Amino acid sequence: MRSRYRQPPAAGVAIALAFGTQFPDLIDKPLAWHLSVLPSGRTGAHSLLVAIPLIVCLIFLLDRIERRSIGLWFGIGYLAHVFSDGLYALLDGHYADLGYLLWPVTSVPEYEESAGIIAHFVAAELTPRILGEFGLFTLAAVLWVADGMPGLRLLGHLIRRSVAFVNDTAAG
């Protein structure tokens, strides 16, 4: 948005993009790590057989209420996550590790699964690749702040509204 239109993204677009980048893990990790419904934390929502139809349906539905850009940016974030998860396997020539992209048609390798998100981060080693990922995150955070933190105010408003709704429902 910044390079093409010389303005920061709209709040809804920023939230959709951010949510899209986390969506596959928000679905797959709990289903695999805690509920044992999926064979891996990188299967169901990480599969293009799930991602593509979901994104197309979302764009179609949001287009009906003139919010197509929200669906497009969610989809961009979603697919960026799915493909970036396979980046190291691709660079290292471990193509079998990309089986998650077409799961359940293709098999997924045995991953060393985490006992949870905190255990996952505690066990992480500070390799050059991890440091590079932290660098990319820092760059994205700096650009987001430079753009005026689009979406933060709207997100706060939505959270306050949700809390008020829950409180009102519980009270009445």
Estimated structural class? mainly alpha
DSSP summary: helix tally: 8
User: Strand-and-helix sequence, N→C?
Assistant: HHHHHHHH
Compute the average pLDDT. 90
Distance between the termini: 44 Å
Low-confidence stretches: none
Number of strands: 0
Give the biggest beta sheet. Answer: none
Helicity, in percent?
55-70%
Tertiary shape: globular
Radius of gyration: 18 Å
Strand coverage percent:
under 5%
What is this structure, in a nutshell?
The chain is 67% helix and 0% strand. The chain has 172 residues and is mainly alpha-helical.
Topology of this structure?
Blueprint: H1 2-5, H2 11-34, H3 48-64, H4 68-85, H5 87-92, H6 117-123, H7 128-146, H8 152-171
Structure, described:
The structure is a single chain. This protein has helices at 2-5, 11-34, 48-64, 68-85, 87-92, 117-123, 128-146, 152-171. The protein is globular and about 45 Å long. The protein is built from 8 helices and no strands. The relative contact order is 0.14. It has 172 residues and is mostly helical. Helix content is 67%, strand content 0%.
List keywords for this structure.
single chain; 172 residues; mainly alpha
